[in-house]
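User: Predict the full complex structure for these chains.
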Amino acid sequence: MYAYTDFDRDFLAERNAQFRAQVARRIDGSLTEDEFKPLRLMNGLYLQLHAYMLRVAIPYGTLNAAQMRQLAMIADRWDKGYGHFTTRQNIQYNWPELRDVPDMLDALGEVGMHAIQTSGNTIRNVTADHFAGAAAEEIADPRPIAELIRQWSTDHPEFQFLGRKFKIAVTGSVQDRAVTAAHDIGLRLVERDGQLGAMVLVGGGLGRTPMIGKILNDFVALDDLLPYLEAIVAVYNLLGRRDNKYKARIKITVHENGIEEIRARVDAEFPARKAAFNGADMDILKRIEADFAAPKFEDGQGAFPTHYQHDPVFRSFVDTNTTAHRHPDYAILTVSTKAHGATPGDATSDQMRVLADLAETYAHNELRISHEQNVILPHLPKKHLRAVHAALAEAGLATANVGLISDIIACPGMDYCALATARSIPVAQEIAERFEQLKLEHEVGPLKIKISGCINACGHHHVGHIGILGLDRAGVENYQITLGGDGGPDAVIGERAGPGFAYDEVTDAIERLVRAYLDVRQDPSETFLDTYRRLGAAPFKAALYPEEAKANAA
Amino acid sequence: MPRAFTPKVVTANALLEGDVVYLDAQGHWTRDHAKADLIEDQGTAEIRLLEAQAQAHEIVGAYLADAQAGPHGPEPIHFREAFRTRGPSNYAHGKQADGVTTE
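Assistant: Here is the predicted structure of the two-chain assembly.
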């Protein structure tokens, strides 16, 4: 894992001291809120519905046991004993008090963490495949590139006041677990003639105008990558609209100017940018890559095959929550934060400490946070899986539902977020509990439900197989359903099914949808998404709106 | 004809804690919606909002929220403001934990 240098530590200490002084000046009245707000946002501090919220970056979702324990300590000392993992691989604390935030940032700095650029119109926390360095089918570990981008973009003087926020995601796998097509820039590492490079997508994004990113360049050699990215962001900074915040994201710039025009401008900008780099970035990348060297994998599975054969609960957990590792005696374990009825993405400080202990004891001291709001032990020897399962069960973390209907992404919604127009969390809780009661979850199989509490789409509802968008309709919570979205390598925006549903109608509507799928699928191997693609929306709309279907039939 | 004025309360967030607060009739900030001053006319509402905004050493983001008279004092009309009177629905945190809510 990347280890912070003295330069990094000094930078964080200085930045935190600067913010401490700014907080003091806000409290003593020297700074107005208008003056203070951009400063606090530059340090990840929001004011939400009921309290402040501190958003902490977990760059490319990677952290070690000491960092996880520190997150737990912060939750206990300055918050309410839990944290919320987000769809952008951050952790959010929902209840800090203003005067405590500088201490929280110092505590983060002690373990090489921070909240810089987790807010504001700048390049945000760089995200990556949460199975990076571990997945069997991976072409290359995307994290060194993500770390290089983090170093380049942090406090980049040209890009601190962009027209809007700017999100970059990197994947090194054809599976694309980083949803690269829904980012301002998506990078997919590819090999050509033995050389590693990146396919560059641009102009993706969800929100009020959801768009799938377009291929700007199908191969950029690694030593050209940073200057190429810099050229893209520079073109956007100049060309992007600033007259209307809803039209300021690069997806609109690409849409209004066309991908050819953007490509021509980037190509024109690139040579000067390239000349300024002189290869220093590649020296830095080499040092970063050394920090991401794979752990020394141990051979052997111990009693794992016997346990797997004879313990059905353990077998179900393994089948559902593990993924093939690059080493045959290892597994990638996804720990679900979505126990039925739990708040998606929340972990208590005790649970964080259990996860830290397990990572340290059994799994090469490494953890990941996924954009799907789960926690991952990426390098877990199969011989330790049973012990880990037992410890997780004791901590309430052994729910075998990864990728199933209750593994729901849900943004904080109107329970916390000042921008939200409806609640997300209780909808997710109720759907998960309903299907647990029905005992249908495993029969239904892979199905991604994603819920957002407003049009900004933090819950990624557009790329949910079933998406749910909470809105305010005449002072009442109302939920629109989208169908057929997909965040994978061939990403698709879901289609709106029809009129929305009242808060107390949503779970019934989802049950009707799922039962319709069970009725019309060819066999259990045909997933919900496959069935939707084969049959289209008609049978699902008929299930959602039975009265309308009846009237049409009459 | 001008639209009828919907009564208002002045609300904001406390500077230090971020808590939802309301302006009472004495010009003090209370965490209890039922103790807020229910303002019945547009002119008074605008003046009281200006008074609130001048208290930047105590609060952040003051605005007027629709409300109505209830048996125990002003009640919110919109569901967003109702959530602000109690706290999130997934945990007993915020005002409901502090026993401030009158619901």
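The two ends of chain A are 64 Å apart (CA to CA).
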